[in-house]
Amino acid sequence: MFFSDRIKAMQTSPIRRLLPYADEAKKAGKKVYHLNIGQPDIKTPDEYFDAVRNFKIETIAYAESQGRTELRDAIVAYYQSWGIPYERNDVYITNGGSEALMFAVMAICNPGDELLVPAPFYANYNAFAQASLAKLTPITTKAENGFRLPSAELIEKLINSRTRAIWISNPGNPTGVVYTAAELEMLASIAKKHDLYLIADEVYREFTYDGQKFTSLGHMGDVLDRVIMVDSVSKRFSACGARVGCVAIKNKEFMGQMLKLCQARLCVSTLEQVGATGLYKTAKTYLDEVNKEYKSRRDTLYQALKGMDGVVCEEPKGAFYVMVKMPVDDAEKFIIWMLQNYDVNGETTMGAPGAGFYAADSGLGKSEMRVAYVLKKEDIVKSMTILKGALEAYPGRVEAIKA
User: Fold this and answer.
1) Peptide bond preceding 150 in cis form (omega within 30 of 0)
2) The sheet that has 368-372: what strands, in order across it?
3) 264: which residues sit within 8 A by CB, 6+ positions away?
4) Are 248 and 203 in contact (CB under 8 A)?
5) Strand-pair category, 135-140 with 114-119
6) How far, in Å, CA of 167 to CA of 157, rounded?
7) CATH 3.90.380.10 is the classification of domain 5-43+285-393
8) pLDDT tens digit string along 222-249?
């Protein structure tokens, strides 16, 4: 049977690929602590459910392809509270941040075009690029210096005639890095100099810790016509299943092209948009409390990891992930081994293999694992006890690991 080059170029999700092993472990009676996926156990605000319950209509009709006016206006008000000057016509609603990212790549890339992205990066960036037969060119960052960006000179050496954008996650998934204003100003300067877009994935905007000040690419006023802002209710309001996101930019020509894609898929679910509108009415105290909870979970996780022999990681400053370098021959094999062969009192744990968070075929991340601190502290403590014991018992453990 024939399959397109596009679909053959796409990788399976490293975050979800090993779920069949977890399912088998559960069938065998084990409890699995899922640290492999960014699915918070935080309560979704009541405002979401209240808005849906109070939506009285006889027919669920198509919504506008750009998104319901009420939701777009609510998002505009949200952005303006952050000092980001978007207006209604600058914002279109998408099926989660994922569709916004895929649409952005489709709008600016031809097959063979390139996108610069700090690595490690969110694994599905590979899939979004591959779906358009585009290529991710990694800007290598390292845990040892907090995953900070390299100099402008080093970044500019990666730019060529096929480069279309610089793509960042801020705060970073999977690294937890929070970029400084100086780093973002550097990227803005590079984008202007080389006529590039800036794709800004800022879905973890509220989650910064230890006094880290969040600066948005939306604060870079002289490049707002090239900043493709991507956002979502998934993590901010613990509403991953709602699948409501948005794309925003101060560029009428770009939005005119984006409208073609929005119209082609008709619309985002009307009912989910109603619920999402309610979410943007959630009191700020909700997000303040969620931030405190994630910081507490971060502290618990990080202290446990630092106490494990041979483990290398840096304290994440934002989002709710950490990349962990482990003394193992292969992180994917180790995760599968844990699910199949290791448990403590019938419980085991699961992370996401690190190699999938780098450019395809880079060879990087083989001994790394992304851990999401999305579970309550008691479960994090249990899962870290399991991980420590598993690392000590794993047959493929390597005694020396380079930091």
Assistant:
1) no
2) 321-325, 368-372, 352-353
3) none
4) no
5) parallel
6) 16
7) no
8) 999 999 999 999 999 999 999 999 999 9
